[in-house]
Amino acid sequence: MGPTQELIDELYVDKVLAARQRTFEQKFLAGGELHEAVIERMKMGILMQNPNATEEEVAAELSRRYAIARILENRE
Amino acid sequence: MSPNAILIKVVDALDRCGIPYMVVGSFSSNAYGIERNTHDADLVLQVPPPTDKLIQELGPDFSLDRQLGFETVTMTQRQIASHRDPPFKIELFFLSDDPHDIQRFERRASGIIGGRNIFVATAEDVVITKLRWSKQGRRTKDIDDVRNVLAVQHGKLDMNYIRQWCQQHGTLELLETTLQSIPPLPPQLSDSN
Question: Is A9 near chain B, with CB under 8 Å?
Fold first, then answer.
């Protein structure tokens, strides 16, 4: 059984109220901070799959995966 | 360099080139709504920048498309500035002669980000534009962003202004459906809007 609409609405209202507590600047910068965290995880994933990769190879693979992520985001 | 520092570096470079701009897209909807990850940043520039000067101002970590592209969702010309490591793209859209594009640029607001003034589209114009893009590009994330801005900014928005443009863009029904999807907010935070 999935969550009820009432629960979904309650969780959404909580998110709205939390967002109202944050400043314009905090929220403006949050997307970039989240992206930075995603990039770090992508780098860790590349190194796990390719433990001997050089910095240049990691950067090249990161650029390739970033390009794919942008395409997927714009298709959503 | 973080994506935020990359964006601020581009904004500073535009300032030095004397190019009026405003931040649009997910950075603007995050500022007024509920934050989400973003893979790039979007700016609208009043006039195309002098490419060589902008490249010089951005420095060696960036590359800048020399040829203008055409973006099919927004139907405007753009140039892309790319930061190499970490990879992050800044899409530079040029102000078109579209009446709403012109008005939203005139209404742009400024906010203090990282100790400097940064120009950002207003919350009303974020809603109007994302509804329009959503209709053209059928992107669900735009509707989510619109819903979040409407919910977080409830009571602070000029709904007459939003409805007037949505009427012209054929997105009024989409706006009303999105408004209806927002659950009732606690009384102390709701108002007569």
Answer: yes
- Contacts B148 to A, Cβ<8 Å: 16, 19
Taking only the tens place, the pLDDT of each residue in B26-64 is 999 999 999 998 889 999 999 988 888 999 999 999 999
Give the CA distances from residue B103 to residues B48, B99, B124, B164, B179, in Å, rounded to whole numbers and listed in that order: 18, 6, 11, 13, 23
> Residues B13, B33: contact at Cβ < 8 Å?
no
Contacts of B31 in chain A (CB under 8 A): 24, 27-28
The ipTM (two decimal places) reads: 0.88
Exposure b/e, B89-114, CB count within 10 A at least 16 = b: bbbbbbbeeeebbeebbeebbebebe
Contact B23, B120 (CB under 8 A): yes
Tell me which residue of B14, B30, B129 sits closest to B76, measured CA to CA: B129
Cα dihedral sign for A10, A14, A16, A20? positive
Query: What is Dmax (Cα atoms) for chain B?
Result: 55
Instruction: Report helix, strand or coil for B48.
Output: coil
- Amino acid code (one letter) for B6: I
Give the Cα separation of B43 and B187 in Å (integer): 36
| A70–B35 CB contact, under 8 Å | no
Per domain, the residue ranges of chain A are 24-75
pTM of the model: 0.89
- CA of B28 vs chain A CAs: smallest distance (Å): 7
Nearest chain B residue to A24 by CA distance is B31
Residue in A31, A59, A75 closest to B38 by CB: A31
